[in-house]
Structures are given as structure tokens and as C-alpha cells.
Amino acid sequence: MTLQELETQLSRCQSLAECDQFLQANLHQIRPLFYGLTRRELQEYRRFDYEDVFDAFASSKAGCDIRDGHIPPASVVSLLIFFLSVFERALLYRAVHAVTQLIPAGPLRQQSEALFEYKNIENSAKDYLNRFDTILTLLQQAWNHNTELGQRLSENLLQEYLLDAILEPKSAGLDIRSAITARFLDQKLQQSYPILLTPSVQKLLDAPTSQLEQARNAVRSHIMEDIHTQACLLVPDVLLMKIADEFGGETEIPEQTHNRLPDFLDDQLERMNAAYSPQYRSISRTFSDADEQKNCMYLGTYFPRTVIESWNIFTELLSIPVIQAAFRQKDIIRLLDIGSGTGGAVAGALLALNEWGQCEATVAVTALDANQIALTKHGEILDYLRDHLTFELDFQLRYNQLPSDLEGFIPAFSTFLDEEGHHYDLVTCWKSLCEFYNTGFAPAQGIIRNLLNLALPALVPNGLCVVADVTSTNNNVEHFAITLNREVNEYEAGSDAKGHTILPLCCASRTKTCDPRCYTQRLFRVGHQLASHDQTKIAYRVLTPDPFWHSITASFNNHEAYRVNAAKIHQACANGSKRTITDPTPCGYTGFFTKGE
Ligand SMILES: C[S@@+](CC[C@H](N)C(=O)[O-])C[C@H]1O[C@@H](n2cnc3c(N)ncnc32)[C@H](O)[C@@H]1O
Question: Does the beta carbon of 303 lie inside 6 Å of ligand 1?
């Protein structure tokens, strides 16, 4: 779905019921149109496109019906919330007002009215102070009649109001901090508006001015997430994913070369007190604050899984003659691993290069992670692995907590790449991006696309970028494999894409026709001392810069359809469409690399 298609569809809606029917079927693919762009991108390039779409809806028969007093169905309110969020980020406050008029009376409308009051400022010396009572009345009323989530949104909006009132006049050379603070501290006002006593709000009153910009970025991200959650809760069947078929039924495990950790690595894990303890969800929601014990559990459970995944995938990549020829030429192979943790993806890549036997380069690893304990273990493992490799190994461990919202992620990752100043032969990002989306689904939208935007130009011309991640629904909104597929497709569809997918085979060059709910899923067997019959599943894409992509894909066999989901054994992808299969159909991950095979 494009914005233009949405505009056409909305303008055609002859009634609210018709609109509801269209949204029930399509909101899941309309949502991404409203997220994933930074404030700057919206403000500079796209803002008016959204106004056109909204105008199409507002002037449709369905929009007229709302103005005539008909109550819009939940799906329509959900769409209005998307508009509200995008207009706020695009600084289109008149449009915020227009949307607000269509939202049914109640807490959400009051919050939206409050937002308009403190955003649509004409005189920053006076308006923030003069509108204090109006804004507080709206936020307090919305707080009084709300759920926990709704109350939190009111509190976050109040924080943003305070921060705007301090920071916006300041940028015009005015200082109203003491005047606005006095209102927030006034005991009489606190009795009238108890929301003023919210601890997170009171804490801001004492914060040094230098920290306020950062605090505002954080609160904006929370507001975006809260507003999105409100939209989801209105139509949970449409916008929140259920645990799907990934756990049920028959599954298929395609051929894999490696299914056991090498003994020497097993021995090292034992020395490091690795413990096997799969804890689906609690471990994988976010790992950046894991302590020593959790890291040991990670080492004995998830590290081996990642090693097996990465070892197999790199073995398969290194079996492609075009890639072999390129990697044989290299004197140095630089590998950047983003969200490396204890280093399973790096270890797998090193094992594959070692076994390939033709690597004469020094391998230089840069590992970035937000967990110092994991990084230290990563270093210990690499120090040990070095003795088992036929090539030289250097490594740098970089402690770095990248912001988990798009606004913060882009500058931070871009600065990281600039400061490191290298071009890489391999960039890997293994099961770490899901954690950004688990922190806040809406503000993280676009991170995968932008990571590729920055990482592909940081590759050497014959470099490879592997983005692999979980296939679960830990963020409670969407299968992460769907998010991954969608954002990689969006990246590739962009006019400034510097590279494209080579694997899975069906995702190479056919992404324009992809079903938005498609997700790929590969299952691996995993064995090691602590668990002899474990399994692991991931979704992944391997991308490479365009000229190299052409050389590689030209060497592929072309089949009509490929199997790409281990949990859907009777399904294959044919040019982006799902197809039920009865005949033997090749696996989309491996085994069909070379023409004539
Ligand atoms: C589930 S672990 C995966 C580790 C490793 N890539 C693997 O596959 O075994 C996720 C990793 O992402 C890191 N991570 C999560 N959020 C991060 C952030 N904002 N910045 C940097 N690293 C982050 C965590 O510290 C953790 O080590």
C-alpha cells in the first residue's frame, strides 16, 4: 500500500461502515506508512503528502458523516490516531486540530486538544503561560477518566508541555523557566491539578538545562509509543499479532552442514561456566542489562544457537564461487558485528572462514554492544579461538548503547561508523535489532531500513551484510520476521539503495511484489555439551552492494518457487506470492547456488 493508494481508497469510502471494512482488512499495512520516517524527513519532504491523504478522508462521505455527529468505528479512530501522530511529528498543528475535531469526545480527544494548545504557539513569551489552565484542565480530565496507559500518556504530554515551555522560548532568546516552574510548584494549582505532582514531572523541574533536550527526546519517543498503543488497542485483532503458526504443526529443517559446536568451543564454554536454560521471552526481550548470571545462561543456551546459524550461513555463502573468488583476494577481512553480545555470530563467521581453508587475510573484528559483561566474555572467547584459526585475528570491542528510537539511532550509528572510519567486508547484526523494537515498537520503526542505509555504503564493493533476527512476537505487535522483511524491502525499494538481497533466493530482486505479511523462517538443529538436541530458528537477509549483487545473482539457478518458512512446509514463494506446493520445491536458503547444479 502506498500513500497515494490510501488516498484514493479513503476518498472513495461512501460510509463509515465501508471505511471500517476497508480498514479492518488493511490497517496492518497502512500503519507502516505513518511510522519509520524521522521528524526531519517528515518536515522536509513528506509532510504535505499526509495532509492530502487526510483531506481525502475528511472530505469523503465517511468524514462528512463524522462531522454530522455519527460516531466513527474503532478502526477509523485508529487511523485518526495515526494521522495525529504523524502531523505532530511533521509540525503540522493546524492538521492536528483538524484531526482532533473528528475524534469522539473523551480522554483521547482531550489529550489531542492539549497537544494542540501547547504546540500551536504564536507568542512563546506569553502563550505557554497563558494557556496553562486550559492545558492542565484538559490533561487532568483525561487523566481522571483513563486507563493506566491513558494516564501515562497524559503524564508524558504534561512533561513535553513543560519541556517545550522551557526550551522553545529559550531558542528565541527568552527565558520563562522560572515563571513556568513556579506554576508547576504552586500548591493551590497542585490541588486543582493533582497530575502536576506526578514524580517524573516534578523531577524535571530540578533538572539541569543541559539535560532537558535529551529528556524531551525521550518523552517524545514515549508519547509516540503510547499513542501507537492506543491505536492498537482499539483494533487489537487487526494491529496486534497473535502468536502464529510458528509453534504448531510440522516443521522442516533444510540441509545444514554444521549441527554441533566444535569440541574446543564446548570446552571453553564449560570453563566460562556456561549454563543451559532456555527461557523463551524473558531472556530475549532485552538483553543489554543482563548480569553475570544471565550472560552465563546466554553462553550455554543462545550463544551456541547463534554460532550454528552463523557458521552454516557463512559456509553457504563461502560456497558461492563468485564470493569465494572475491574473498580469496583479500589481505584483510574487516568484520563489524552490531549488538554482538558474547560473539556467537562472529565465532560462526570465523569457523566458516577457517574451514573454508582459503582465507589468507587477517581478520579484524569490531564488535559493538551495550553490555560490558557480554563484551568481556566475547573478548575471552576470541582470545581463545585465535589458537584454533589458521589466519591472524585482531579484534576491538566497543561498548556503545545505541539509542533504541529511530531519531536517536541514526545520528549515533552514523557517528560510530565515522569514528571507526573503516570499510567492512562483512557486517553482521544478529538478534540484536529486535531488542530496539521491543523497547518501543513505534519509535523504533525504520531502524532496520536506516541501518542498511548506513551500513551498505560502509561495505567494500564485494562486502556482505547479514541481518538475522528472531521470528517471535516479543514486541506484542508484530512478528519480528515480518518487520525485518518489510523494512529490508523498503530499503531496497528506495531510489538511494546501494545494495540488494542475495539470500533468501526468493527475496533477491522480487521484493516489490512481496506479501506484507510474509515472513521467512529457517530452522537449524543445534547440539553441544549442554544440549544435544536443541533447535533454533531465525529470519535473515544477506545483502551486498549492487555490482556484486549482479555478479552473484547471475550465477544462481532460477526456480519458479522456493520454500522459505520452516513452519509452513506446504507453502512456497513464487515471485512474491505465496503458493501451495505439492511438487518438490527447492529451499530458498541453500543448495541452488550455481547454475547447472
Ligand atoms: C539477544 S542478544 C544477541 C547477541 C548476539 N548477536 C547473538 O546473536 O548471540 C542482543 C544483543 O544486543 C545488544 N543490544 C541491545 N540493545 C542494544 C543497543 N541499544 N545498543 C547496543 N547493543 C544493544 C544486547 O546488549 C545484546 O548483547
Answer: yes
